[in-house]
Structure formats: structure tokens, C-alpha cells
Design brief:
The complex is a heterodimer of chains A (153) and B (115). In chain A, 30% of the residues lie in helices and 33% in strands. Chain A is an alpha+beta fold and 153 residues long. Chain A folds into 2 domains: 114 residues, START domain (Alpha-D-Glucose-1,6-Bisphosphate, Chain A, domain 4), CATH 3.30.530.20; 34 residues. In chain A, strand 4 and strand 5 form a beta hairpin. About 3% of the residues of chain A have low confidence. A 3-stranded antiparallel sheet of chain B has the order 1-3-2. In chain B, helix 2 packs across helix 4. The longest helix of chain B has 24 residues. The chains are: A alpha+beta (153), B alpha+beta (115). Chains A and B meet through strand 1, helix 1, helix 2, strand 7 and helix 3 of A and helix 1 and helix 5 of B.
Amino acid sequence: MDDRIEKRIELKAPVSRVWRAITDYREFGEWFRVKLDGPFVAGQASTGHITYPGYEHLKWEAVVQKMEPERLFSFTWHPYAVDPKVDYSKEAPTLVEFRLEKTATGTLLVLTESGFDKVPAERRLEAFRRNDGGWTEQMKSIETHITNYVAKN
Amino acid sequence: MSRKTNARAAIRMQARAHVFAALGDETRLALVVKLSDGRAHSISRLTRGTRLTRQAITKHLRVLEGAGMVHSTREGRESLFEFNPQPIIGLREYIDLVSGEWDQALVRLKDLVER
């Protein structure tokens, strides 16, 4: 299973504090950089607008899957759904899960995102266009490879 | 690393080498940059601004097509060429990109809860 993201981060704050930061729609919006229209409700769509500078015209859409207090929060969405003209609802979404565990010093947060194998190729290109320097970086790495390739032959 | 992963990595490397060889040419690299706007281009449009003939451009486009970076469609009597990002932007690169976004977001979350 390498088509997924997993992040583990130790937070020096109680589980209850972390739970609030990831499930209160205002607090979530603060660190995720999105202005949400209302609270998260399991089984319901969550809508809002990106607040990331330069991308304020973009909508944020997710469907909340699970809310098990102080344990698990999950939603499905379309990462890098950056073209306002495209209807992403027909594409298979990825699943984001936040799992919380109490530790001696605070909380262990385990974040996973899975389901990338179904993301269409066009979306990947869009993602690179949006990402600052993504495309440029890619071109640079191609250049490096070519230089190495030429040097070896 | 399992044998299966190794075999997969070897196939990926081979495909990469093919892509890099196709891009190891200034004209083709310039064509890829032009095509990467995501739109379908005609040969005359791709020839414009270069010192090359339509035949030469067509030859370069076929090399890119062979590496899977470009695909062509016909519109009437004209061939239109479109960029296919897949060989360059693989799934892994895409995941790395999303992964980088999460790293930044989690730093902001950490700041918020430890404030």
C-alpha cells in the first residue's frame, strides 16, 4: 500500500483540545485555510471557500464521514480541485482520516489520506500548475536527469 | 523491498528513461512546454515561432507520442496534438505534492493547539 499518505505528529495539548481544533469548523478553517459555511455533521456535505491567498475564488467541498468524539474524524474530498469549471463530484474522492491517541505528553495525531489510485491524470497536472514552482521543479528535475543521462553516455 | 516492488521499480525506471530520452532535445522540450497549457494544438500553431518546417515538427511530435507524452486526434483534415502529463507526473509525484500541503497544514494546526 504505497498509494496513501500517512503523517504522525506529536502535539503538546490534551486530546480534547486537538479534537476541537480539527472538528470545530471555525478552528479547522483557521489552520486549514478555508472559510466553512457551517459546522461539520457526520454524513453531511461541508461547503465553504478557500482562504489561501490567491485562491479565494475556489470552493471547498467535502463530505463528513465519521465523527467519533476524541478518537476519529474523517471526510472525503477532492484534493486540488482547483478548476471552478470542472464538476469534481463525478470523480472518485480520497478519504482523509484523523485519529487521536492520548500520550504521556499530550496527543498523537495520525493523519491518513487514501484513494489516490483513482485520481485522474488531468488532476495531477492541475495540481502541479497550482503548486508554486511545482511545474518548474519538475522541469528542473527533468533537466538534471537529461544532463546526467548525457554525461553517462 | 519485495521482488514484486523491484520489478515494478525497474519497469518505472525503463519508462522514465524513455521519457527523458524523448525530452533530451531542445525542440521537443520547447514543444512540451507549449503543449503543457492543456489545450490541443495544430501543427501549424506549433510550428509558428520556430525556424523548423512542419515536417520537422511532426517528426518531433511523433517521438513525444512514442514516449506517451503526447496524443493526437484528427479534426477534419488536421491533426491536433495534446499533452499527456501521465508519464512525467506520476502518481507518486502527485501524492508527494498533496503530502507537502499536509505538512504545512499540520504545522499550522500544531501552532494553534500549542498556543
